[in-house]
Design a protein that fits this description.
- The protein is an alpha+beta fold and about 260 residues long.
- The chain folds into two domains: about 160 residues, no CATH class; about 90 residues, no CATH class.
- It has five helices and 15 strands.
- Strands 10-11-12-13-14-15 form a six-stranded mixed sheet. A five-stranded antiparallel sheet has the order 1-2-4-5-8, with helices on one face. It has a four-stranded antiparallel sheet with strand order 3-9-6-7.
- The protein starts with a strand and ends with a strand.
């Protein structure tokens, strides 16, 4: 395991770039996704909130083989830790998987060299390629008293999640985090299209661990022709009930899809 080095980039931002041991031979997700059954890294605490409790089952179709230790060590250099001071005694922390083609499963450990302050071991469950997770933490000491370690495994992508549509996403407003547009390159958006996007977004949002979002489906022509909020269907993600609710543009519930 390699020790992390603190890099102070700004007064409010500190990044630690760290690496660790990737462990074991090629293995399947089912054998290691439950960290209590894995000996490759210590069991930590669940600081990160996961919104979809069926996420592990959904990931099984998309996460491939575990890399061997030598290959994993190189990629674990790209798992980074960053935090910001909340100015209330807590810190907002981000763990980035900067690998574009591999999942990271493991822990991030924070510890001080004096051995007196509390150590923190943060569970990280399969960060998707190019994605990040975040959480708040109340540290027992000053941030720059800590060293950072990453331990865990890297996994290949078994299959890419795709949908057979040309579309892009757009924000509803600059301060909205729980709703957005799916702008579709089509003459119209049908109920069949809404069902396809419901299936796609339920899995996509679970893999990337998004908080529950409402997606507004709209054609590119309608979206780009007005500044008003226009859409044909709305998809309300409901991970607590493993479902997606489909509404028309009048707010009428048309269907509830359960997964």
């Amino acid at each position: 395991m390699k020790k992390g080095i603190l890099l102070i980039l700004a007064s409010s931002v500190i990044i630690a770039t760290v690496a660790s041991t990737g462990c074991g031979i090629t293995d399947s997700l089912a054998d290691v996704v439950d960290k209590t059954d894995s000996t490759s890294f210590p069991e930590g605490d669940d600081y990160i909130e996961y919104y979809y409790d069926d996420r592990d089952d959904l990931l099984d179709d998309y996460v491939g083989d575990k890399l061997d230790e030598d290959d994993a060590d190189v990629l674990l250099e790209n798992v980074t830790f960053e935090y910001y001071d909340n100015d209330d005694g807590t810190y907002q922390c981000y763990i980035y998987n900067n690998n574009s083609s591999y999942y990271f499963n493991g822990v991030v450990e924070l510890s001080t060299s004096n051995g007196e302050d509390m150590d923190y071991i943060i569970n990280v469950d399969m960060i998707a390629p190019g994605n990040y997770e975040y959480f708040d933490i109340d540290l027992d000491s000053e941030p720059d008293d800590y060293l950072y370690y990453v331990e865990g495994d890297m996994y290949e992508v078994k299959e890419d999640l795709e949908i057979d549509y040309s579309y892009y996403e757009a924000a509803v407003s600059s301060d909205s985090t729980d709703e957005g547009y799916a702008v579709i390159d089509a003459d119209e958006v049908t109920l069949d299209d809404a069902n396809a996007f419901a299936d796609y977004y339920y899995v996509y949002d679970a893999i990337y661990n998004y908080q529950p979002i409402t997606y507004y489906l709209v054609t590119q022509t309608d979206y780009e022709s007005t500044n008003d909020m226009v859409y044909t269907y709305a998809l309300s993600m409901d991970p607590e009930n493993h479902s997606v609710e489909i509404y028309d543009n009048a707010g009428t519930l048309l269907d509830t899809k359960t997964y």
